[in-house]
Specification:
By secondary structure, this protein is an alpha/beta fold. The protein has helices at 34-37, 89-94, 116-125, 188-204, 234-247, 295-303, 322-326, 356-366, 387-397; strands spanning 9-13, 49-57, 63-65, 82-87, 103-112, 131-135, 140-143, 172-178, 212-216, 253-258, 262-264, 282-284, 293-294, 309-314, 331-335, 345-349, 352-355, 405-407. The strands form 4 sheets. Strands 9-8-10-14-15-18 form a 6-stranded mixed beta sheet, sandwiched between helices.
Length: 433
């Protein structure tokens, strides 16, 4: 993708501003020069050498951010707020991890990414998604980073959590999903969210791993600690649901655990007339696909399954809007935020980054965090943690700008506390194998 340099030097200065909204397409600040660089006529900049002062990230792929806080939101970042980088592998290896999150001065050539994945995603997010900065020299440090590089570490090395053995027999089926949109936006925390939950389900609760299907990114895991069965695309989702349709019966438990980016108002047809906030369709994102996974299709697939009870745990932004679509008898549906809110990541444990709500929810079920820190969510001291107790623990400890929601009385109208839901179904719902 290398383009011949033109004798033009465009210097752009990016300053850190806090976001003004929580929609998929936030208002772009007037003094954000990257908006002009990736505006409607962005292709006029192809071949130009530019020097940027921005926030540099190494994970999951090198890139520049106008506001580093955008990476902690689980909704898609507006194209005008970030720029992908094409960095030579040898140069990339020479850049220290301490540059991750640092403000740097960096020079490169604007080019157009013609890879098939970029072309496909441009159909979803606009042609400026293909804008990429080709870099052949190390950036200059301006302000050191105050965030930790997000590695992916084996949680067994952090504590005795892997020594926990469950006496139960398997009876529960679990779908785990994370698309991540693209290679540059499939943050390591999404993989860590899945691994932590998968580990607790299999090692602590004794769920048979063969009854868990992981639908992730391009179908390849980040390490060998958890199997990935299908790619996060329509074909992979169909294969996963085909498995559950064939295997599950009316007395089984179905758990749907999703992390990832989420969006709102991605469909012209609104089916959510009774939603309390915005009456918009929500979605979760696939990986390298030109269309997202719309709530109507999610609901249709779930409703076609046979199960006795369901627990849905949804981390993506705006996931509170999924609750109305997925409502039903004997279903507990939980989201990290309301349907009009973004959800947040950034929780660090043992060098790994997680999304805050599902981190605390999973830790409550496990009785400890991945680094071995003890957690006591068993408020009634009966020796086991109910979904109500896990939600309350996560809701209390999640201090990010999000309001977790739960629907446990099957009416599709979630509340921010268990006490606001009629009945005690969540208090009597325990995960079993």
């Amino acid at each position: 993708m290398k383009t011949k340099k033109l004798p033009i030097l465009l210097t752009l200065f990016l300053i850190l501003l806090f976001p003004t909204g929580c929609s998929d397409d936030p208002t772009i600040e007037e003094d954000n020069p990257i908006a002009e660089l990736k505006g409607d006529n962005w292709e006029e900049n192809i071949g130009k050498e530019v020097t940027l002062e921005a926030y540099f990230v190494l994970s999951p792929e090198p890139g520049l951010f106008f506001n580093l806080e955008d990476r902690m939101k689980n909704t898609n970042i507006a194209e005008e707020r970030y720029l992908r980088l094409d960095v030579d592998d040898e140069l990339l290896r020479s850049i220290p991890d301490t540059y991750h999150g640092a403000k740097v001065k960096i020079t490169g050539i604007i080019a157009k990414d013609q890879q098939p994945a970029a072309v496909s995603l441009a159909e979803l997010f606009g042609s400026s998604y293909q804008a990429i900065l080709e870099v052949d020299r190390e950036p200059t440090l301006i302000t050191p980073s105050d965030i930790q590089f997000e590695a992916i570490n084996n949680i067994c090395e952090a504590s005795n959590i892997c020594d926990i053995v469950s006496p139960f027999n398997p009876q529960t089926y679990i779908l785990m999903f994370s698309g991540g949109i693209s290679s540059s936006k499939a943050y390591s925390r999404y993989w860590n969210d899945l691994v932590f939950f998968h580990f607790i389900m299999t090692w602590v609760y004794g769920v048979d791993a063969s009854k868990i299907k992981v639908v992730y990114k391009n179908g390849v895991g980040e390490d060998n600690f958890m199997p990935v069965h299908f790619a996060a695309n329509p074909t992979g989702i169909t294969a996963a649901f085909d498995f559950f349709e064939e295997e599950m019966d009316f007395d089984d438990t179905f758990i749907f655990f999703s992390t990832n980016h989420g969006g709102t108002n991605y469909n012209g047809t609104v089916n959510d007339d009774n939603n309390s906030f915005n009456n918009k369709d929500e979605c979760m994102f696939y990986y390298n696909q030109s269309t997202p996974w719309i709530d109507d299709d999610i609901a249709t697939r779930v409703n076609n399954l046979n199960f006795g009870r369901m627990l849905g745990i949804f981390e993506p932004c705006f996931a509170g809007g999924l609750i109305k679509d997925l409502q039903g008898e004997n279903r507990i549906l939980i989201s990290a935020s309301r349907e009009d809110q973004v959800s947040w990541g950034g929780k660090m444990s043992y060098g790994n980054q997680y999304d805050d709500f599902v981190f605390y929810f999973t830790s409550a079920l496990a009785g400890q965090e991945p680094n071995g820190t003890s957690v006591d969510a068993d408020t009634n001291n009966d020796g086991k943690v109910s979904v109500a107790e896990a939600f309350t623990y996560a809701r209390t400890n999640d201090t990010k700008d999000e309001i977790p929601q739960i629907d446990s009385d099957f009416n599709g109208n979630p509340s921010s506390t268990v006490a606001a839901e009629s009945g005690n179904y969540a208090s009597t719902f325990f995960i079993e194998p």
